[in-house]
Every structure is written in C-alpha cells, then in structure tokens.
Amino acid sequence: MNHDRYDDAYLRDILRSIKTIAMVGASTNWNRPSYFVFKYLQGKGYRMIPVNPGAAGEALLGETVYAALADIPVPIDMVDIFRRPEAAGAITDAAIAIAAKVVWMQIGVRDDAAAARAEAAGLKVVMNRCPKIEWGRLHGELGWGGINSGIISSRRRKE
Amino acid sequence: MSTEQPHGFGFETRAVHAGASPDPITGARSTPIFQTTSYVFDDVDHAASLFNLQTFGYIYSRLTNPTVAVLEERLASLEGGRGATCAASGHAAQILAFFPFMEPGDAFLASRKLYGGSITQFSHSFKKFGWHVIFVESDEPENFRAAMTPKVKAIFCESLANPGGVITDLEAVAAIAQAHHVPLIVDNTMASPYLCRPFEWGAALIVHSTTKFLSGHGTSMGGAVIDSGRFDWAQSPKFAGLTEPSPAYHGLRFHETFGDMAFTVYGHAVGLRDLGPTMAPMNAFLTLTGIETLGLRMERHCANAQAVAEWLERHPDVAWVSYAGLKSSPYHALAKKYLRGGAGAVFTFGVKGGYEVGVKVVESVELLSHLANIGDTRSLIIHPASTTHRQLTDTQRTAAGAGPDVIRLSIGIETVDDIIADLDQALRGATRRNA
C-alpha cells in the first residue's frame, strides 16, 4: 500500500482494534519523547509494554521493561518502533515473529523493505507517524493546542 | 509529517467549518465562548502530565482556550499550515513570531514597504530586546540576498503591503530565505488567505492582524502566527530556542519532542505563557463568525475597490492611484501571479494639492469613516502622513508609500455608487475650498 499518506479510516481502524502496544525504545527518562507517548497512550486505555535492553527489569509507569519483544509473556497487538531507522528492519522481523497485528514506526522512521515483509505476513504498517499525535488528531485533542487536525465534521465527537 | 488537508474541502467550506465541530457535551453547533480562566485537573498526575506537555489539554487561558483554539485551527487550515497561535493583536503576533528564535544581538531583514506601525515596532521596541532590523528595498528581491549577514535569522515582508498597492515577489524572496536557511515570515493581513497563500510560494511562517479582513467587521482586536510546519529548525544551530534543551521544561527539546508542531507548541507553552498577550475568547468568537463570510466579503471588497480605483484614476483632482488591480500599476503582473480573485481593498491615491488638500478630503467625507483601521465592512479613509505614519521621518514616509499627498482607502462592502459619490463630493469640496 501507499505509505506516503494514510486515510483517516485506516489509522482510526488500527487505533480502535488494538489493545496492547509494545514500545521498542521506551525511555525511563520522563522528559524523553518516548516517555511522553508511552504515558499518553497508557492514559487512553492501552496496555503499554516497554522494551529497552538498557533498562530491562526496571519498572516504567507500572510496567516491567523487557529486553526484547520475544521476552514479553503476553500477546502484543501492535509494536511501536521508537528507534533509529536502521533498527526498524530487525524489530519488524521480531514483531512478525511474535505475531503482532500492526507495526507502527515513529516520525522519522521508515523502512519500506521491512514494511513489505510485514504486509506479506499479514500485518498492517504505519510509518513516519506518531500514534499519540494521530490519536489526538482523530479525537479532536490536537486542535486544543492550535494544531490543524485536517478534520471537518458536523457530527458530535464520541469516545 | 505533512498536514492532512481535508478530503478536497474547498476554502469556503473550511472558512465555515474548520476547527469547529459540534460541542461534544451539549451539541451546540455554534462555537461556545469559553469565558473561563482555568480548567480542573482529574488528579495530580493529570496535572503533572499537562504541565510537562505530555498530554493535550487545557490548564490556564493565558496559554490555551477552547474558543481561541477553534480560531487557531481554522486559520491554520485556511493558510494550509500545521498550526497557529493567536494573540491579542497583530503586533503581539509579530513578537510571538520572532520570539522562539531571536536572541539579543540577532538581526532580521524586513521589507521597507510595511505598515507604519510595524516599521516603528521593529525599529524601536524590538531594539530593546536586542533584535535588530535591517530594512531592504523589496521591489528588487536580490536586495535581500545582498543584505544577508551571519546574524540574520529571518526575512519579513507583507504579501500585499500597507498602505497601498505594493506586492512582494514572494517566490523570489522565499528562494533567497531558503538558500540562507532562514524562515520567510509573511504578513498576509491585507490579502487574507482568500486572496494569497504565502505557504504555496515558500513562506515558513505567516502573521496576521485578525482585526482586519478576517474579523472583518471592525469589532475585535487579534493576531495570529501560523506555522507551515515545513521549515527545518534543526538544520542550523541558529534556532537553538526550538532545538536545544528548554530550562523551563526540565530540558525538553521542542523540535525533537513535537516535530513539525514544535513552533506552535512553543508559541503557547513559552510565548504566551511568558509574554502573556493572549486573545480574549470573545474576540476569538467574533473573529470566527467573521471568517465564515470571508470569501463573500473579499469578493465584494475587491470588486468595489477595483471600481473605485478605476473611477479615481479618471478623476481630474487625482494625481495618481496605486492599486495593483489597475493596468497602470507596476505591480499588476505580480498581482495576477500572487492574488486570486482581486487585488485587495486597501490602496492609496494622491491628491493634486498635496498635504493640505489631503487633510481636507478626509475631513469632508460623510459616508466613508475617517479612522485608523482597514478591513472593515465600512469604507474607511485616512491621511497616513498625519496619522498612521506620523511617527516616521519624511524619508521613511515616502519610502513606505505614505508621502504628504497620499490618501489611503479601505473600501468596504457598501453599494459602490454610494462610495464613489461620497469621494466625489469630498474631492470637489476640498479642491474648491483650496482654490
């Protein structure tokens, strides 16, 4: 599929269908961007599982940090890749191996070959986006700070 | 990340709808006026998340307010930008535009053909911050390249310049700004996004006095700075305010954390927080209502202005008319390129007889209003040399197009024959008494 732009319906469907998100590259430092996203999505009701070999065994916002996706003892719906683009390929393969349904790469992260492998294995892929920003945009929160959500609707927002 | 524009929605649709969906609690269709200073926190952790900028939400109306936020999103949509920060006035918006990256000792280039108030703000008050303006004769865009110094952090110009008839070659100036890795800031007040979209020509930031055509009815002060989201603040160490750790947010780096929203988040979380020039919710509401009819008003404003300019050009008491919609204007070709749907409603003309006759004309009108504003539904008239541009030197006045014989008009949406009849009686009266 085309990864230069995503329909709102595609992103909304992903964010509605998943419950558990493993964030690879989650930082335990409270003023790192990954911590912001982790905390925000946790607040929206997702079960967030942190993956970071440098902090394995520590606790992050009530969740144990794992060294690798394969170490997580619960099923994972989505893998959020908060790492440099060079690391995305191997993490995508690990996400396929643990039978995740979605691979999501953060802003600045894009690997079309990895995306093709994931899609061939039946996973949905989002690249160069932030799930926090997209959740906020699709639920009307992004506009609270003067950001252009691109959404026009005469319907009352639900959820 | 590119901003997703609504699925082909046109300008007029976005002017009515962008940013404003029905209130989720009450279903109110018009945007409610949230006349509140502050917002409750769910708990201490929620409050901490908000103060740390880790979640979206309202804390205190000096930073963000739901009514103002609707206006911000609407302006960002109409200009094709990523986000917007509203301010108490256009002048406040100009400070917010420069504040994220200017430090004492820094400089910026500005067109010499600007609203007189901007020339004064840049020349004198900005100097108190240690921000230095270098004015450039903008009719030749290469002058901006020649004026570049290592201290220059931005270029500022007006798309359609106040007081009259001057149009900046935005594409050429933007190319020079991009070659020097500095943002081009365009004041798009006079054109409004209905006539001109500076981001399409390479501008990085747009500022507005929303007091003018956007609000449209002469009721509400306001300003806005809109970020295209397309300027890479991280490409140069010049923009450390946005890329380096922010001490007031425990080392948070705005650009790293918020990506293409960094400028707009900074505008609220630092600019409005620390400088405090917040737009009032009531003014945001009135401006939103005004914007709903922006397209309709601009059509009539431009049609009336074109007719008045053509009539003045034939008038025996008029020495010259500076309106880019006239074939005689040196800016006519630029108007065709940059303005869609008309050459705007504000322009100048010169009376035969100079300063004295100019003063008498503005004192003789009965339908037009003699006042210091533009972009009202009412037709407005002023003699810049004795009012808006009074603080400038003679040389600055002439350079800004506000010499002693100059009268500025902001043509309203009344019946055009009535506007012409009033100008005709004023001109006849002024020249007869003068003779």
Written overview of the protein:
The complex is a heterodimer of chains A (159) and B (435). Chain A is of the alpha/beta class. Chain A has one domain (8-145): Rossmann fold (3-Layer(aba) Sandwich). Chain A is built from five helices and seven strands, in the order αβαββββαβαβα. Chain A has a five-stranded parallel sheet with strand order 2-1-5-6-7, with helices on both faces. Chain A has a two-stranded antiparallel sheet with strand order 3-4. In chain A, α4 links the parallel β6 (102-105) and β7. In chain A, α1 (8-17) crosses α5 (131-138). The relative contact order of chain A is 0.16. The mean pLDDT of chain A is 95. Chain B has a seven-stranded mixed sheet with strand order 1-9-8-7-4-2-3, with helices on both faces. A five-stranded mixed sheet of chain B has the order 10-11-14-13-12. With 435 residues, chain B is an alpha/beta fold. The N and C termini of chain B lie far apart (65 Å). In chain B, α5 links the parallel β2 (107-111) and β3 (132-136). Chain B has two domains: 11-290, Aspartate Aminotransferase, domain 2 (3-Layer(aba) Sandwich), CATH 3.40.640.10; 294-434, Aspartate Aminotransferase, domain 1, CATH 3.90.1150.10.
Number of helices of chain B: 17
CATH superfamily of chain A: NAD(P)-binding Rossmann-like Domain
CATH class of the largest domain in chain B: Alpha Beta
CATH topology of chain A: Rossmann fold
The total beta strand count of chain A reads 7
Order of helices and strands of chain A: HEHEEEEHEHEH
Gross morphology of chain A is: globular
Number of strands of chain B: 14
Radius of gyration of chain B: 22 Å
Name of the CATH architecture of the largest domain in chain B: 3-Layer(aba) Sandwich
Helix content of chain B: 25-40%
CATH class of chain A: Alpha Beta
Rg over alpha carbons of chain A: 15 Å
